[in-house]
Amino acid sequence: MGAVTLGKTLILGVVVLAGCGRAAGPPTYPVSGRVTYQGAPLERGTVLFVPEQGPAAGATIASDGTFRLRTVAGRHWVGVTSVPEPPPDVEPEDYHASPLIPARYNRPHSSGLTAEVQPVGDNRVTFEL
């Protein structure tokens, strides 16, 4: 196969893959929410929704404690993690800090946090840690 033919084949492959977009799977629904800790918005972190069946979904928590994600309908176990931002002179992989919230919230199956996502209606949740 010549260089031109190989190049055209690679371009065609990229176009085909790009056209596929999102992989086929179960339908997902929007979820929005807010996380507070000791009565104040949790200013940073991540939220992880793990459904009984289907793929997990996660989101970054904004500085006002809010988050948005899409996930499958049904019951979800929820985990929340939050650590301080690394100093600018430290590489993220070298940064080790104590969590801003109790470690029990890190694991969805043992955090005590759950959410029920509906295919219709308003999927807004609040987690008060």
Q: Which secondary-structure class do the elements indicate?
A: alpha+beta
**Distance from first to last alpha carbon:** 61 Å
Apparent shape: globular
The biggest sheet, with number of strands, parallel, antiparallel or mixed sense and barrel status, is:
4 strands, mixed
CATH class: Mainly Beta
List its traits.
129 residues; alpha+beta; Immunoglobulin-like; four-stranded mixed sheet; four-stranded antiparallel sheet; 1 helix; 8 strands; disordered N terminus
Strand-helix topology:
Blueprint: H1 3-20, E1 29-37, E2 40-41, E3 46-51, E4 57-60, E5 66-71, E6 74-81, E7 113-117, E8 124-128
Parallel strand pairs: 1-8
Antiparallel strand pairs: 1-2, 1-5, 3-4, 3-6, 6-7
Task: Describe this entry's structure for a reader.
With about 130 residues, the protein is of the alpha+beta class. The protein has one domain (about 25-129): Immunoglobulin-like (Sandwich), CATH 2.60.40. Helices cover about 15% and strands about 35% of the residues. It contains one helix and eight strands, in the order αββββββββ. Strands 1, 2, 5 and 8 form a four-stranded mixed beta sheet that branches. A four-stranded antiparallel beta sheet has the order 4-3-6-7, with no helix packed on it. Strand 1 and strand 2 form a beta hairpin. Residues about 1-20 have low confidence and may be disordered.
Please provide a brief summary of the model.
With about 130 residues, the protein is an alpha+beta fold. About 15% of the residues lie in helices and about 35% in strands.
